[in-house]
């Protein structure tokens, strides 16, 4: 990186415009508030941001932000008029994007979707896929292709991977890779299920394998079943398992819905008998674990 000088200068925060090629799609308000509160209390002021000089000024701004958006916004939140900055010389928008992108990639600050969209920009700016991979310390263009391929997912699925989605409900890179080869309606069906029930990658693999084996390789979509279409007796057992197995409850509920859609209702009595047996065994197991834990505490 080339700088206008070695000096850190004080720049008025209202003379800085946000970056036009920022890799971040979303900044949690709590991240800004947390740093802003630290600044107000006298901490967190050592690091400087990177800006480029605008000549002539643009919309009243003398500088454009290159790197350090959270710190800049935290200063604004804390009503601190100036911020420490270094003026960097950037030759084009490729370099301006790469500076924060590579830094935030190395510190795991970006979601895979933010990385993918940034790579898409670099690809559209005539940077080769091999060159893009090398910027991230990767040896093969296939690494770049991996991210670009994921952008073929349905926009509704990509929305579930956005940085504004709570992390537990956000589709991970591995989730996305499991879905990208499916038709759009099936991507959406699985994507919504993964997000709603917070399924792990392993659980999704097993779910896809199970449904594929039962319905055939061409029938990937989850059955559209509403709870009201399942007999009350069956839903009662779902609720029992929810109480017994805790965090597994949401998964159990969905699996019951999937399975109930395929049950022959003349087999209901046999099914209920089996479920009663399962609930009994779970109750016994829970009691055994409780006794074991109680004994362990008394030793």
Distance, first to last CA: 62 Å
What proportion of the residues form beta strands (DSSP E)?
5-15%
User: How is the CATH topology of the largest domain named?
Assistant: Conserved hypothetical protein from pyrococcus furiosus pfu- 392566-001, ParB domain
Largest sheet features: 6 strands, mixed
Shape descriptor reads extended
Assembly state of the chains shown: single chain
| CATH class category of the largest domain | Alpha Beta
CATH architecture of the largest domain: Alpha-Beta Complex
The number of domains is: 3
How helix-rich are the residues, as a percent range? Answer: 40-55%
Our Rg estimate from Cα atoms comes to 26 Å
Average pLDDT score: 82
Q: What structural class is derived from the secondary structure elements?
A: alpha/beta
Low-confidence stretches: 222-231, 245-252
Number of helices: 13
User: CATH homologous superfamily of the largest domain - what is it?
Assistant: Conserved hypothetical protein from pyrococcus furiosus pfu- 392566-001, ParB domain
């Amino acid at each position: 990186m080339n700088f206008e000088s070695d000096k850190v200068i004080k720049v008025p925060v209202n003379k800085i415009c946000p970056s036009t090629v920022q890799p971040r799609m979303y900044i949690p308000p709590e991240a800004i508030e947390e740093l802003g509160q630290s600044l107000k209390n006298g901490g967190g002021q050592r690091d400087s941001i990177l800006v480029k000089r605008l000549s002539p000024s643009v919309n009243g701004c003398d500088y454009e932000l290159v790197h350090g958006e959270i710190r800049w916004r935290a200063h604004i939140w804390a009503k601190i008029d100036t911020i420490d900055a270094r003026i960097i010389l950037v030759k084009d928008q490729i370099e301006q994007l790469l500076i924060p992108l590579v830094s935030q990639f190395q510190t795991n600050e970006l979601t895979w979707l933010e990385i993918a969209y940034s790579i898409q920009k670099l690809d559209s700016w005539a940077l080769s896929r091999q060159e893009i991979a090398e910027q991230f310390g990767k040896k093969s263009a296939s690494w770049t292709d991996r991210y670009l391929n994921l952008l073929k997912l349905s926009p509704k699925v990509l929305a579930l991977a956005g940085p504004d989605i709570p992390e537990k409900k956000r589709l991970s890179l591995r989730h996305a890779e499991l879905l990208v080869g499916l038709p759009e309606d099936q991507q959406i069906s699985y994507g919504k299920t993964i997000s709603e029930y917070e399924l792990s990658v392993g659980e999704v693999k097993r779910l896809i394998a199970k449904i594929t084996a039962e319905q055939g390789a061409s029938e990937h979509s989850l059955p559209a079943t509403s709870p009201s279409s399942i007999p009350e007796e069956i839903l009662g057992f779902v609720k029992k398992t929810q109480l017994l197995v805790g965090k597994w409850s949401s998964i159990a509920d969905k699996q019951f819905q999937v399975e109930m859609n395929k049950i022959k209702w003349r087999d209901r009595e046999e099914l209920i008998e089996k479920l009663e047996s399962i609930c009994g065994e779970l109750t016994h197991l829970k009691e055994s674990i409780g006794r074991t834990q109680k004994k362990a505490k008394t030793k």
